[in-house]
Write a structure and sequence with these properties.
The complex is a heterodimer of chains A (527) and B (438). By secondary structure, chain A is of the alpha+beta class. Chain A is elongated, with a radius of gyration of 27 Å. In chain A, strand 1 and strand 2 form a beta hairpin. In chain A, 27% of the residues lie in helices and 18% in strands. Chain A has a 7-stranded mixed sheet, with helices on both faces. With 438 residues, chain B is α/β, with parallel strands linked by helices. In chain B, helix 2 crosses helix 9, helix 3 crosses helix 6 and helix 14 runs antiparallel to helix 17. Chain B is globular and about 75 Å long. The relative contact order of chain B is 0.12. The chains are: A alpha+beta (527), B alpha/beta (438). The interface between A and B is large, with 43 and 37 residues.
């Protein structure tokens, strides 16, 4: 008991007692009582520069206000935030007034409007007309920093988050601050370009509209979009993202803070690569030998193909629940097929390895978790692809567009599929090659079109929410598996929705009993 | 009638070859260092404490106490930095030392390094000081060649390296943590404290930063004893100091004077009085970042830390700026505010934005375009800056602004009243004000 006490400190914030680990700063400590100490420059995963002065708090006994980001909680400390201290409130209003004096009043055309910390805090902590009647400082506008990011120097509040990200996380050091005083401006260091693999994270980190995405700026007001908390399916890191959609189009992708997974970083490949999971040309009904058939007939054909199949190639981007359903069907049926998940590693540069995993397999760990696959998945897949190209499999089933790694979608592989006795594909893209090569096609859904569980490379279970509904006619893989099980007379889930499926899955898994979607959605669970 | 002052720092300055090692040694140079070599580090610190020497950079912190903050048993190395980034407006005393007597500076640094067991010391020279830099650099080179720097200095087991670095001309690099950032090759911007330099300083090592003049005073103290030094000047702030005087006096320059010398005597006797027989109007006593004193305020005030503090101002960097009765205070403060807004490092919000805002208001007032609310606004904005910044820049910048407005309010009000004629301009502003010009 006494030893445990040594690692924590107890203080009061706005009269409420809070116990936090030693070394915790006041911004983090205040979160425990759901008080937000406003801040711009502070980020929990970057160094603390203390330059914005927004997080000033009163520490009883200190001669002046302290900054919450740089002040460590100490035993017996008495802290007053804006909730209880007028001095703090005034200091925050003063800071906002200062930040705003040279900030352009261009919210009407600014992409950040609606999710801008300057707007939010202004309404919350200042909301007074400015006393500034001088001319504002002119700075660079629309300066390209790299292939994807563009800077509006006048909107910048000099919080230096972007500089610190490039210095401390990617260690590529592209950005710096030029000039002094109110002429200060963020700039690219000589001979550099903001093109590191995580470069566009700086846009997420920018609390205002100074840094924007070249290809997404001016495309929509954020309040016209639907924002969804999804997990990036690009690799097995499982970055937490917020995907904004308008008129069935992804219009912006932001990284979401999750200290246990991606902090608040995201790679450009994942961010700008969502289209990879949302092909433009979709299969919307089932086909047998290129002629349309109805879904029930397709399931009948699938169940007969299933019994005699010699190899099943599965996309690594299925939900964990779907892997489990498939596992159940495989164990209950006579199917003797070789089952592989497309898992193929790749080389990463030092900067990519900061965040990116060396695969294109979002949920291979989910397949392992439910016992569908063993540990040696890379070798299994490699030999299966070799056998496939050599024509060793007579009856094939492919589940998902990514059931074969893009690098293996070669002429020899597709001609082998063509020459097989029978081949079935559950897929999305009518131009993926499966359309021409397979006898039976059933329209599936993208990982971005369903909600459920994904397990990242560190066995961290997370919940992804569907970003889009998917086209009419397409079925989620679990709906297809459910129908397949029924047609094979195998007992299965009676779930009618993604949500019911996940809850059913929890009840099936001893390890996850008592779990709730809400709990996993908020942060995730280590398995 | 002139008073005789002690000559601690300016004793041999008229010797043209003083910067050369042989001349310096022939005049008794490096004797104090040799004495210090035989002393224990703690003894040296004790002697400096006894002398009562207070830092000459502006904060008047007791030097011996500062040295004792350095840990005595640490695995990490210790460094000494000589802060010669003398940029406070009106101050040019360190320049004289580096130009004319660089060996004294080096000797002081060696003794300080002995006391704090520093293995490496650095001189950070103001960017504009090309000649002092060259002189001191040559002096260091000569010391290396003659065994006063480097391995086993003068056959002792004390080894010490010394590096001189010339800044790029930013005022803020005189702030000790910004100086260290700059020395490390980064942009000169102050660090957050804690950690303090004694614990985590240059390159993360234990570091003490002293002003150039402070270090140059140390050899005399070691040679003559702390007690002897403490008897010069006044008890609370003993010794002599190099006083820079500029502005509307007949003989501007640097004078070594004992602490506790009356301001008005200094202006009259040493500096030759006010130019053209004009009347004294205002004095900034310790470099521009101190509270301004009116002629009336100066009566009975002596030049030492405590007396100036009692008068509401500060000793600062011993740089007196004198203004006669022809001075337009609205222009004087505009000049100052331009300096501060230009030199704000731009790191933290209140100083970066507020400093410029105030300059713009002062500019309007000086041009007779002020508004009635301007003076109150400046005071409020100053209040929003002071106490809310990373370093002391913001805290000190507002001191001259507020004191000049307070003490010469009539001049500001008169100019603002004049502005009422330019009506169209005001109309435009009134509109802006209503809308809130964010």
């Amino acid at each position: 008991m006494t030893e445990e006490k040594k690692d924590t400190v107890t203080l009061t914030i706005d009269g409420q007692e809070v116990t936090v680990p030693k070394g915790t700063n006041l911004i983090e400590a205040a979160k425990q009582i759901k008080t937000e100490i406003p801040h711009y420059c502070y980020h929990p995963h970057l160094s603390v520069p203390g330059n914005c002065r927004m997080c000033q708090v009163e520490v009883v006994g200190a001669p002046k206000l302290m900054i919450g980001c740089h002040t460590q909680a100490q035993d017996g400390m008495e802290v007053r935030t804006q909730e209880t201290s007028k001095e703090v409130k005034d200091a925050q209003a003063a800071t906002l007034e200062f930040i705003l004096i040279n900030h352009p009043l261009d919210c009407t055309v600014c992409d950040q409007a609606g999710h801008c910390k300057l707007q939010d805090y202004h309404y919350e902590y200042n909301a007074k007309p400015s006393r500034f009647i001088e001319e504002k400082v002119k700075k660079v506008k629309a300066e390209s920093l790299g292939p994807n990011v563009i800077l509006d120097g006048e909107r910048c509040i000099m919080c230096t988050r972007c500089i610190r990200f490039c210095d401390e996380v990617t260690e590529t050091g592209e950005l710096g601050m030029l000039n002094r005083g109110d002429k200060s401006v963020i700039s690219i260091n000589p001979g550099k370009e903001l093109n590191n693999p995580l470069a566009s994270t700086v846009v997420d980190l920018c609390p205002v509209g100074a840094l924007t995405h070249k290809n997404w700026r001016f495309n929509t007001r954020i309040w016209y979009t639907k924002e969804t908390n999804a997990i990036c399916p690009g690799c097995s890191t499982g970055c937490n993202t917020k995907i904004a959609v308008r008129d069935d189009q992804v219009v912006q992708v932001k990284a979401r803070l999750n200290s246990k997974v991606n902090k608040e970083w995201m790679c450009d490949e994942g961010r700008y690569g969502m289209e990879r999971f949302l092909p433009k040309s979709r299969i919307t009904s089932s086909f047998e030998n290129k002629s349309e058939i109805n879904f029930d007939d397709a399931i009948k054909k699938l169940s007969s193909a299933f019994g005699k199949s010699s190899a099943i190639f599965i996309s690594p981007n299925l939900l964990t629940e779907e892997f489990y359903l498939l596992k159940q069907i495989l164990s209950a049926s006579e199917c003797k097929a070789q089952v592989v998940v497309a898992y193929k590693e790749r080389e990463l540069s030092k900067e990519e390895a900061v965040l990116i995993s060396p695969d294109y397999a979002a949920n291979y760990k989910g397949a392992q978790f439910v016992g569908l696959l063993g540990s040696d998945i890379a070798a299994q897949y490699e030999s299966a692809i070799k056998d496939l190209a050599a024509g060793k499999f007579t009856n094939l089933i492919f589940i998902g567009d990514n059931s074969i790694d893009d690098r293996d979608k070669t002429v020899s592989v597709f001609s082998a599929i063509n020459n097989a006795e029978s081949s079935v594909a559950i897929c999305l893209d009518s131009e993926s090659g499966f359309m021409d090569s397979c006898n039976l096609l059933i329209p599936g859904k993208s990982v971005l079109e369903k909600s459920g569980l994904l397990v990242n490379k560190d066995n961290f279970l997370q919940y992804t929410q569907s970003v889009l509904d998917g086209p009419k006619g397409a079925k989620t893989e679990w709906e297809i598996f459910q129908s397949l099980a029924k047609s094979l007379n195998i007992p299965t889930t009676s779930a009618q929705s993604d949500r019911e499926l996940t809850n059913w899955f929890f009840s099936e898994q001893e390890k996850l009993s008592g779990s709730t979607i809400k709990k996993i959605k908020s942060e995730g669970v280590s398995l | 009638m002139t008073t005789e002052h002690h000559k601690v720092l300016s004793a041999n300055l008229d010797n043209e070859n003083l910067h050369q090692l042989d001349t310096y040694i022939s005049l008794g140079g490096f004797e104090a260092f040799k004495k210090a070599l035989k002393m224990e580090p703690a003894q040296i610190i004790e002697e400096v404490k006894k002398s009562g020497l207070r830092g000459r950079g502006g904060a008047c912190f007791p030097t011996g106490v500062k040295w004792s903050f350095m840990p005595t048993n640490s695995d990490k190395e210790s460094y000494l930095i000589n802060n010669a980034d003398e940029s406070e407006p009106g101050t040019y005393k360190d320049r004289l030392l580096m130009e004319r007597n660089p060996m004294l500076v080096i000797e002081g640094m060696l003794i300080a390094s002995l006391a704090m067991k520093a293995v490496h010391s650095f001189i950070y020279v103001r960017g504009e000081y090309a000649f002092p830099y060259e002189r001191t650099k040559d002096a260091i080179k000569e010391c290396y060649e003659r065994g006063y720097l480097g391995k086993n200095i003068q056959g002792s087991n004390f080894s010490h390296e010394m590096t001189i670095h010339r800044g790029a001309g930013a005022y803020i690099c005189g702030e000790e943590t910004a100086l260290m950032e700059s020395l490390e090759g980064k942009k000169g911007q102050p660090r957050l404290k804690p950690p303090f330099p004694a614990g985590y300083g240059l390159y993360g090592k234990h570091t003490t930063i002293n002003n150039c003049e402070t270090l140059a005073t140390v050899p005399w103290i070691i040679q003559n004893g702390g007690e002897a030094y403490s008897k010069i000047g006044v008890e609370s702030c003993p010794g002599t100091h190099l006083m820079c005087i500029s502005g509307h006096v007949n003989k501007p320059g640097i004078y070594e004077i004992d602490m506790g010398y009356p301001i008005l005597d200094f202006i009259e006797n040493e500096a030759g009085g006010i130019r053209n027989g004009n009347k004294l109007k205002a004095v900034v006593p310790g470099g521009s970042s101190t509270v301004v004193l009116t002629a009336e305020d100066c009566k009975g005030v002596n030049i030492d830390a405590e007396s100036l503090k009692a008068a509401g101002s500060a000793m600062g960097s011993s740089a007196m700026i004198v203004m006669d009765d022809t001075t337009d205070m609205t222009e004087a403060v505009l000049n100052l505010s331009h300096f501060y807004s230009h030199e704000s490092c731009g790191q933290c919000t209140p100083c970066r934005e507020g400093g410029h805002w105030i300059e713009k208001i002062f500019a309007r007032i000086a041009k007779c375009e002020g508004q009635e609310t301007d003076l109150e606004l400046i005071e409020k904005v100053c209040g929003q800056i002071g106490g809310h910044t990373i370093c002391a820049f913001g805290d000190t910048m507002i001191l001259p602004y507020l004191s000049i407005i307070e003490k010469f309010k009539d001049e500001f009000v008169a100019k603002i009243k004049k502005s009422n004629s330019s009506k169209s301009l005001l109309d435009r502003r009134a509109l802006n004000f209503e809308l809130g010009a964010h």
